[in-house]
Amino acid sequence: MDPRVVLPLPTFLELQMNDEKQLILKWLEWKEHNEGRMPGTVNKYLRYLEDLMDWLEKEKTIRLIDAGRQELEEYTGIEAHRRGITPISRRPLVSAIKGFFAWALEKGLVFEDPAARLPYPRAGRRLPKGIELRNAERLMLAPDMDTFLGVRDAAILAVFIGCGLRLSGLVRLNQSDLIWVNDDGIERLVIRVREKGDKERFMPAPHETRLLLRAYLNHQELKPIDRKLPNGDQVLFISVNDRATPPHEYYGEARRISTRSVAEMIEKYGDQCGIPRNQCSPHKLRHLFGTELIESDVNMFKAQALMGHSDPKTTKDYIHVAMRSLAQEIDRANPLSKMDLPVTELARHLTRS
């Protein structure tokens, strides 16, 4: 069922005979429209709460709305560990449970919030790891530029690698989001990006991205495709082989490429190039972008703006993995490098290599 379906809110007494899943969907509808949560987050929270509801019914023979702190702590602790869920992956699970019961208390559906003091598990920092630069270059060269699909795919990869967009932001792009400006006689491209709760930012694109987008937009095979939306805008990146959509309905929004198709496209080219699967995802391309900003000494506040991070701490994580340029400075300037030690020649050889 679509989480965005409007459902009547039951009273506490009516809840005795009401489907609890409808109550979860009502909360998710509120969360999506009032907090701007993306559909991916909404669907993830729905899975978490459905699993909790099933576990409570089978193991504790109680309903979700009757759960106490003891049951919730057992589920997010021992039970989650038994299922192989790592501490860092349990944090959004706890967040979903806390959010649901806080909402239920506010709406008068429970007399007290059993999740109010539910602890988040301690977890070490997960540092972002992106695709290696040399592998990203191989990925960029993989599409066949003699074909329309190859040009489209190269443009998509260039937006990921050159601009660091999230997958959700890329697939939402429309043609009006491409803003062409003149900079002292040189054409430049600025991309309007909408990600994470419809937050809008403007991203200057490198010339490589601009040129590949021009090649895509000017391609003869794109021109006859009906990409027009009801507001007169046009879908930017299109799908070409959606068998689930009838031909007479395959236009406008139905032509928009899906997140799944983009992810599968990146994996396909990665497999062709022999790049490990754990480096071939939209998120890994975004991490490369962030890492290279820091390694190129881009100011922290500018990097935060370019990455679209609302929390500066997220940007700081990239410092921990962007150590190449700092290591080169250490190799060149540290006092030991100016001494004649038993290991000096070996160290100099390693520095040169």
Give a description of the structure.
Strand 1 and strand 2 form a beta hairpin. Helices cover 50% and strands 7% of the residues. The longest helix is centred in the first third of the chain and has 22 residues. The protein is mostly helical and 353 residues long. The radius of gyration is 25 Å and the shape is globular. Strands 1-2-3 form a three-stranded antiparallel β-sheet.
User: What multimeric state do the chains show?
Assistant: single chain
The termini sit apart by 57 Å
> What string, H for helix and E for strand, traces the elements in order?
HHHHHHHEEEHHHHHHH
The CATH topology of the domain at 133-282 is: hpI Integrase, Chain A
Uncertain stretches of 5 or more adjacent residues: 1-18, 318-323
Largest sheet: 3 strands, antiparallel
User: Taking all residues together, what is the mean pLDDT?
Assistant: 80
CATH-defined superfamily of the domain at 133-282: Intergrase catalytic core
CATH architect. name of the domain at 133-282: Orthogonal Bundle
**Percentage beta strand:** 5-15%
What overall form do the CA principal axes indicate? globular
Tell me the radius of gyration. Answer: 25 Å
Q: What is the level 1 CATH name of the domain at 133-282?
A: Mainly Alpha
Helical content class: 40-55%
